[in-house]
Design brief:
Radius of gyration: 37 Å
Low-confidence stretches: 1-13, 15-32, 46-84, 93-110, 114-125, 547-573, 608-614
Strand order of the largest sheet: 1-2-3-4-5-6-7-8-9-10-11
Helix content: 25-40%
Mean pLDDT: 75
Biased composition (Low complexity): 554-571
Largest sheet: 11 strands, parallel
Distance between the termini: 70 Å
Strand content: 5-15%
Number of strands: 11
Biased composition (Acidic residues): 644-658
Biased composition (Polar residues): 629-638
Region (Disordered): 1-115, 540-615, 629-658
Biased composition (Basic residues): 84-96
Number of helices: 20
Structural class: alpha/beta
């Protein structure tokens, strides 16, 4: 009896220490009531910690490559969080049982709180800005000013492939603020109503049938063909045109037209064929509509069919006042049997528009040495883009005979076109105001197809610039060496005294030879020189000054004005007049000081330029001067240093030192 008693006591004491509640004091040892080995909870030998550490989920062992980042993050959290007094854990705890389903979904249901309050994508960042002066009374602005502001802020309504920008919802919210905002927001929406997707077009058409008031305010229609005009639930285009009697511009497009330079996008419209109906132009003539802008798309049916329709439509009365025309996706093979007929239809269609001023030709290999000289001489704006076969010789042939009236020239992504025409640009286009060149190329159908198909960008020498230029924007200027780059920038500096209207200079050049030291010396010399010559460094005008620079009424001015007004009369109006005069005097003094400071800066710059090389003329009228020179390979998305940095800077000094 004595030998078995200690054994039972030890056995009972061991069971009591392993249980979880006080109700087990009455425990009678029995093998049937003991839990199985698989259901027993394993003992934990962790030290006591606070509640925050107990709530942290268990994480697996970090990988060797991620260990340093985890250490830095953990160190930053410990350094940022305030220390809490540790509380001892009670000796006896209750463990709630969970089902297998709850245990699996627990990491997704309950997540660890964010103690550092880091940036979250759904939370916008608000930067407090100082007051910039007097806030205008927006409700009292005229309708013409408000609609210009709202259209500038809201357009465009859609991004590439029909993705909404949120501007429609924003205009609807703005229109609910006041009556004046409602009229302006409604006008901005009706000027070019958003008709995509299909439910929005049907709702808008039903609204126009019920209410005739907004009909006269619609001037432009942008209609997505594959979604709105093709299919069983498509809208009736003729019914829509009956509700817009004052229509001036219409654009029939496909959402994939923005990616027309990609080869795979040329086959999308084959599943949904659509062609320009003859009833469309009959409706225009019956309603006495005189279009001012139109866009032809060769992908909607076939290029040769659209050219035949275009040639017949341009002789109608509805196209007699066309001023802006866009041709998209008219490409033919070099040995195509349809090419001669297409060239003839193109020339007859263009010459049938006597009032044509602006012409945009996008992704059209039809424009070649035969059709380029046939463009009308009355053009003031010309845009050529995504033409892989277009050469500088074709453009020179047009500019020699038809470039006298040209005021805007835009050339983008023409892979075979050099800049040889710039050598005689001042002589061929004396009225040119806006020059935009983009020498970046992209073709995902083939690897390494971003290089130009010409040897030298300026084979005939340095360029000449028209004196009437207002903006110069050249992106990815390539195929030039160090000496040609110096000649290029020197031509701009030499032309500075004649640039009376130049306000924008943006040039990004890619130097193809030379060491990094030579490129660095070229950057240090010409970037600072062009900024010194062209950049406007005077203080901005007609902009409210910040609070620190805002003229204030000093105590002496107030005392003087108050004593003078009390001596003459006690009228409150005269006292306020004296105060106003004191403020105006102080404002005039500040303006004189600013003019004197800017004049001194210009004089110092002129003296420095004369001492450097004798080129002392300072243009100083450009609000934007952006010059970049490198040898990097161009890309649609240019990565910089900030793309490779962490979201939050590390505070681990030991890690940085090591």
């Amino acid at each position: 009896m004595a030998s078995t008693s200690p054994t039972r006591l030890r056995h009972t004491r061991r069971v009591l220490y392993a249980e979880d509640s006080d109700n087990d004091l009455d425990y009678a040892p029995s093998r049937d009531d003991r839990p199985s080995r698989s259901q027993r909870r394993p003992q934990s030998y962790r030290e006591a910690s606070d509640e925050s550490s107990l709530e942290e989920p268990l994480v697996s062992r970090p990988e060797p490559g991620r260990r340093s980042s985890l250490i830095r993050t953990r160190f930053a959290q410990q350094a940022t969080l305030p220390s809490k007094p540790k509380r001892r854990r009670p000796t006896k705890r209750k463990y709630a049982t969970r089902s297998a389903k709850d245990s699996i979904s627990a990491p997704w249901k309950k997540r660890k709180p964010n103690p550092l309050n880091l940036l979250q994508p759904e939370k916008a960042i608000a930067f407090p800005l100082p007051p910039s002066g007097k806030i205008p009374q927006w409700q009292n602005l005229p309708y013409e000013a408000l609609i210009i502001i709202l259209r500038h802020a809201a357009y465009p309504f859609y991004e590439d492939r029909g993705r909404s920008t949120g501007s429609v919802e924003w205009l609807c919210a703005i229109g609910r603020l006041s009556r004046s905002f409602q009229d302006a927001a409604t006008g901005a929406l009706l000027a070019a109503p958003p008709l995509y997707p299909l439910w929005r077009a049907k709702s808008f058409l039903a609204l126009l049938r019920q209410n005739e008031k907004p009909r006269n305010r619609i001037k432009r229609l942008d209609i997505e063909v594959s979604e709105l005009l093709v299919g069983k639930n498509a809208i009736d285009l003729l019914d829509l045109l009956d509700c817009v009697p004052n229509l001036e511009q219409i654009r029939l497009f496909n959402n994939d037209d923005n990616a027309a330079r990609f080869s795979w996008s040329q086959f999308i419209m084959k599943k949904k064929k659509w062609t320009y109906p003859v009833e469309l132009f009959d409706k225009f003539d019956e309603a006495n509509v005189r279009l001012k802008a139109f866009e032809w798309n060769g992908r909607l049916s076939s290029p040769i069919e659209v050219l035949r329709i275009m040639s017949a439509a341009h002789t109608r009365a509805c196209f007699s006042q066309i001023e802006s025309l866009t041709l998209l996706n008219f490409s033919f093979e070099d040995k195509s049997p349809e090419l001669p007929m297409a060239q003839q239809l193109f020339s007859t269609s263009i010459t049938a528009l006597p009032n044509l001023k602006s012409l945009s030709i996008l992704s059209c290999t039809l424009l070649d040495e035969v059709t380029t000289p046939l463009l009308p001489p009355t053009l003031t704006s010309l845009e050529i883009a995504y033409n892989i076969t277009f050469l500088a010789e074709y453009l020179s042939a047009f500019l020699i005979s038809h470039g006298a009236h040209l005021t805007s020239l835009t050339l983008k992504h023409n892979q075979s076109m050099s800049l040889d025409f710039l050598t005689y640009l001042a002589h061929w286009t004396p009225r040119l105001r806006h020059l935009t060149l983009d020498l970046s190329y992209s073709d995902p159908s083939a690897y390494n197809e971003v290089h130009p198909l010409f040897e030298d960008a300026l084979p005939s020498g340095s360029p000449t610039w028209p004196a009437s230029l207002v903006s110069i924007a050249i992106k990815e200027l390539r195929q030039i060496n160090l000496s040609e780059a110096e000649q290029f920038f020197q031509s701009l500096v030499d032309m500075a005294p004649q640039f009376d209207s130049l306000r924008h200079v943006s040039i990004k050049a890619i130097i193809r030879d030379g060491s990094w030291r030579e490129r660095a010396a070229l950057r240090n010399k010409w970037i600072s020189k062009i900024e010194r010559v062209f950049l406007d460094t005077s203080p901005p005008r007609n902009i409210a000054s910040p609070p620190a620079l805002r003229p204030q009424i000093s105590s002496s001015d107030a005392a003087t004005a108050t004593s003078d007004s009390d001596a003459k009369t006690s009228s409150q109006g005269r006292r306020s007049g004296r105060l106003r005069e004191a403020v105006l005097d102080r404002q005039s003094q500040n303006e004189d000081l600013l003019r004197t400071a800017s004049r001194r800066q210009l004089e110092q710059r002129s003296e420095a330029d004369i001492s450097d090389g004798g080129e002392g003329f300072i243009h100083g009228r450009c609000s934007v001067v952006a010059i970049s020179m490198s040898d990097q390979r161009p890309a649609e998305t240019q990565l910089t240093e900030k793309d490779f940095l962490d979201d939050e800077p590390s505070d681990d000094e030991d890690y940085r030192d090591g």
